[in-house]
Design goal:
By secondary structure, this protein is of the alpha/beta class. The protein contains 24 helices and 26 strands. Among the domains are: 146 residues, TIM Barrel, CATH 3.20.20; 194 residues, 3-Layer(aba) Sandwich (Rossmann fold); 115 residues, Immunoglobulin-like (Sandwich), CATH 2.60.40. The structure holds alpha-D-glucopyranose. The site of alpha-D-glucopyranose has 7 residues, from loops.
């Protein structure tokens, strides 16, 4: 490990010096070195100590009064969960009483909005609209920065292929290419072109790495995978974020192949700071350094501190490992001074880049806070993003959109008038008064004469079915029936793993009771993850998946239900038929015994009790119009390693109303040294077409498009034939071609 550390440190230092001479502002580097020379050992350690504010203390947290004393003494480098101009000013003033007056970094989980709550990240990912996703992050950053926040712990870029894991809600789904594109958009939205602007914040790529592959989908559980899979599937979104200039990384709670990520020099030194030349800093997850003892990887907190700092964990979030042991470890020669200095240098560099030494209060301006948080444009942007996040899974007989003058509409279900649930998890401050419920949204849409009949049926847990009769009666009295079901906001997110992915309680039975009336039932489902709802999928007239659509969710859902917005969302995660299929993704392998037709599944890679196919495929999403794909053209059928080939086709809106389509490009490498999945997403275009409009869509394929991580962890594109597939979903390929890569 020591050799690795020294080598990696040398690499990092070289990379830092080399890159620093160009990229880093020379003035910042000089000012950092000048300050470092004046700092004591204790003051240096203090910069690596992050504490939580008053409203959040975990097990083992110090009392808040003790924390304030540490801040005053210069023993704290950053605070999380302190927000608002007033409180950040108050706490920053304490830090400026310390000997060297080093300002604090204020950080917060601004995951999908600060004051204006946007759809949960998985919902935003379903928009496949990078501009919308970037705009959402920009608004969140603008509101947070106006409220004294310097740094958000987002985007979460963990690939998730297991909906049992509740944190899929916070990510961008199952696909590496889509996840990488979204990671970049979110970093750009949060940070803007250069750190230090007063309407932007530092971002964090988290959780490094492999967190989404927890065994059994159980949060915090061990992760075990080949290095090839790690490099092929899970690392690229982090690399994309690093290349986009993300200011910080956060490590992960899980072990990866037996080593806690927090103590993994392979991840944090060799890959991140070595091979990738990353010059930001790594913050631990909450007490993940202290948890090295719980993992059984460190005998005590002092050993945990040594392991973590040497592995490249620069800042200790609420772990008290560095504050209690790092100075002694350095003084005793167990941790090299250069290891400590590298971490401190990284943290101080960000504080200089954020302009905090020039003006520690520059982000804490009360007038700007009031003005920005009252900006009415943010709600309009949130409504637009929410509309784009909604996925129309089914729409039989044009059940949707509802006519606005339909005589009467029954609005039924535990989430029909919900507000808190629409916000989802990981919000800064719930404000139900600012949330538009689905019922509110409908009321704002319908013609004056239309009668709404409302019946809850049951609560979200839906163990008490005594309300079913009233709901059935309401359906019986109405011309159209809408049911709103799904998860409550706190059924997804951190520490919310589920072994059963069904609709909670007896919600499916409520649907059955309504369907038994014989009337078409339109269903809206709220959730932070893919759920299993086969009965609804079989018998509903239409299904709109709304995730947790944020404060404007009610308006967005109503816009789609009544046709003011033509749904354009596509699934960023595969929806299984049963929990027995997970982990599941569209990236299936042919195997040596592929199922080639349903008639012959004996001695094939198949279940005896279920099809292999999912309920709804990655990339699936319907529209109120139709699109046709035609005229696939390759500029060349054969390409060399250094060539580029243009793939073009015609997309036409063949329906009667405008709509947006997400055209997806997949490839398959037919023969390769590491067997490739049957499909790999390598491009997509979301474009709006008017009725009858035809557009030529182009993709460029180069060597990198065709490359994969081989058995020696090299990115290679091996000669041979590749299938090209273009379509509106991973299970709706409309055009096929073949491209040959020669030596
Ligand atoms: C949590 C999460 C992490 C979050 C951090 C601070 O446990 O794992 O994503 O940023 O602690 O709240």
């Amino acid at each position: 490990m020591t050799t690795n550390v020294n080598k990696a440190l040398l690499l990092a230092a070289l990379a830092s010096v080399a890159a620093g001479a160009m990229a880093q502002d020379g003035d910042v580097a000089r000012r950092v070195e000048d300050l470092m020379r004046r700092m004591t050992l204790e003051e240096k350690v203090g910069q690596l100590h992050q504490l939580s504010g008053r409203q959040m203390t975990g097990p083992g947290s110090e009392k808040f009064a003790d924390k304030l004393a540490d801040i005053r003494a210069g023993r704290v480098g950053s605070m999380l969960n302190v927000k608002g101009v007033a409180e950040t000013r108050e706490i920053q003033a304490l830090a400026l009483q310390s000997r060297l007056k080093i300002p604090l970094l204020f950080s917060l989980d601004v995951i999908h909005g600060y004051r204006t709550v946007f759809p949960v990240p998985l919902g935003e990912a379903a928009s496949w609209d990078l501009d919308a996703i970037r705009e959402s992050a920009r608004v969140a950053a603008r509101e947070a920065a106006a409220s004294g926040i310097h740094w958000t712990f987002a985007p979460m870029v963990d690939i998730g292929r297991d909906p049992r894991w509740g944190r899929v809600m916070e990510g961008a789904g199952e696909d590496t290419y889509l996840g990488s594109q979204i990671a970049v958009a979110r970093v750009q939205g949060f940070q803007g072109p250069k750190l230090g602007a007063l309407d932007r914040v530092m971002a964090t790529a988290k959780h490094f790495a492999g967190y989404g592959a927890a065994i059994a989908g159980r949060d915090y559980n061990a992760v075990d995978m080949s290095e090839q899979q790690l490099h092929e599937v899970y690392l690229p979104p982090f690399k994309a974020a690093a290349d986009a200039g993300v200011a910080t990384f956060m490590n992960a709670f899980n072990t990866l192949n037996g080593v806690p990520a927090t103590a993994s020099a392979v991840l944090q030194r060799d890959i991140l700071k070595g091979q990738w030349g990353y010059r930001g800093f790594v913050v631990s997850d909450w007490a993940s350094i202290k948890e090295l003892v719980e993992h059984g990887h460190a005998a005590d907190l002092s050993e945990a501190a040594r392991q973590a700092i040497e592995a490249g964990s620069d800042m200790d979030m609420e772990g008290y490992a560095y504050s209690r042991h790092l100075a002694a470890l350095v003084a005793g020669g167990k941790v090299k001074q250069s290891v400590l200095d590298d971490a401190v240098r990284r943290v101080l560099t960000k504080k200089f880049e954020m302009g905090l030494f020039d003006d520690p209060y520059r982000f804490s301006d009360a007038a700007r806070e009031r003005a920005v948080l009252a900006d009415p444009s943010h709600a309009r942007i949130a409504r637009d993003v929410a509309r784009k996040s909604l996925v129309l899974l089914k729409n039989e007989g044009q059940a949707l959109p509802f006519a606005k003058d339909v005589g009467s509409l029954a609005v039924i279900g535990p989430l029909a008038d919900a507000r808190r649930d629409l916000e989802g998890g990981w919000i800064v401050q719930s404000d139900p008064q600012r949330v538009v419920s689905i019922l509110d949204g409908i009321r704002g849409q319908v013609a004056p004469g239309m009668r709404l009949v409302v019946a809850k049926g049951c609560d979200v847990a839906c163990t008490d079915t005594s309300g079913f009769a009233e709901a059935v009666a309401a359906a019986g009295r109405a011309d159209a029936v809408l049911l709103v079901v799904g998860e409550s906001w706190d059924m997804s997110g951190e520490a919310k793993s589920r072994a059963d992915l069904g609709l909670p309680g007896r919600q499916a039975a409520l649907f059955d009771a309504l369907a038994a009336t014989g009337k078409p039932v339109v269903v809206v489902i709220l959730a932070g993850r893919p759920l299993v709802f086969n009965g609804v999928a079989d018998r509903a007239a239409a299904i709109l998946y709304a995730w947790f659509p944020g404060a404007q969710g009610g308006n967005a859902v109503a816009d789609v239900l009544f046709g003011d917005y033509n749904p354009s969302g596509k699934l960023p995660m595969t929806f299984p038929r049963s929990v027995g299929q997970v982990p599941i993704s569209y990236q299936q392998y042919r195997t040596g015994r592929p199922v080639v037709n349903a008639a012959n599944v004996v001695y094939r890679s198949a279940y005896i009790d279920s099809p292999n196919t999912p309920r709804y495929a990655f990339g699936h999403g319907l529209s109120y119009t139709t699109f046709a794909y035609s005229d696939l053209v390759l500029s060349e059928p054969v390409m060399g390693q250094g060539d580029k080939v243009e793939v073009s086709f015609t997309l036409a809106n063949t329906g009667r109303r405008a709509g947006e389509e997400v055209a997806q490009l997949y490839i398959r490498d037919r023969v390769s040294s590491i067997v490739r999945p049957l499909m790999e997403l390598k491009g997509f275009r979301k474009l709006k077409l008017e009725p009858g409009e035809r557009r030529t869509v182009r993709f460029v394929i180069d060597r990198d498009t065709l490359a994969f991580t081989d058995g020696k962890l090299r990115r290679v594109a091996e000669p041979g034939e590749f299938d090209l597939m273009i379509g509106s979903a991973s299970d709706a390929i409309r055009l096929r071609g073949t491209l040959t890569l020669r030596d």
